[in-house]
Amino acid sequence: MSVPRLFIVLTTLLSAGAMSTSCSSSSSASAHSTEPGATQVGQTMVRSVGADMEAIVGYKYADSSLGDEWLIIDLALTGLRGESIEVKQEKVSVMTPDGRRIPLPTQKEFIAAYSEVQSALRRAAVASQPLEATRGGRRACDLNFLRLPGTGSTRDAIWINQRELCVGMLAFPIQGGIQPGRWRLTIELEESNLDIPFDLGR
Q1: What SS3 state is found at 195?
Q2: CB distance 146 to 154 below 8 Å
Q3: pLDDT in tens, 31-51
Q4: Domain limits, the chain
């Protein structure tokens, strides 16, 4: 993964079938349901299917970074319909084990904190899980909610359907540091929410 691509904090999408197929070989021994709609597909990867979208979250780096003040996870996301669904930057958040909801930072907030997060992002790139392999011929697109200085413009929303694939990273500032326990990535959509649980430090 190139350094500029690393810092695209959200990029989009796969097909639901491609996700399921690509993960089956790596998860045959360890896959299990974490709760309705969510399936563990590897030691540090979980697949979740909502009403309108499907996602795979890779949290290998986050699981090894307890205590750090930035949560960095890999994300693959696709629509489940032919028509496009809007995903807004302001509707992406994580919930901590103690119940705090932390939104994805804005570009302005990200740039202001860049000096403290850049080394963590580089380490996360090394540990990044290859979710791109689940693309299955779908179109790649960038969800440019956050960008490195000088690497392109940002957007506060993107439209996603089942013919597109976005794979990238999300980065959230965690006051007090990353704690072990159950975390949740939530993407609020117009008619439903995509809720992806993942456990750190187990």
Answers
A1: strand
A2: yes
A3: 343 566 788 988 899 999 988
A4: 3-200
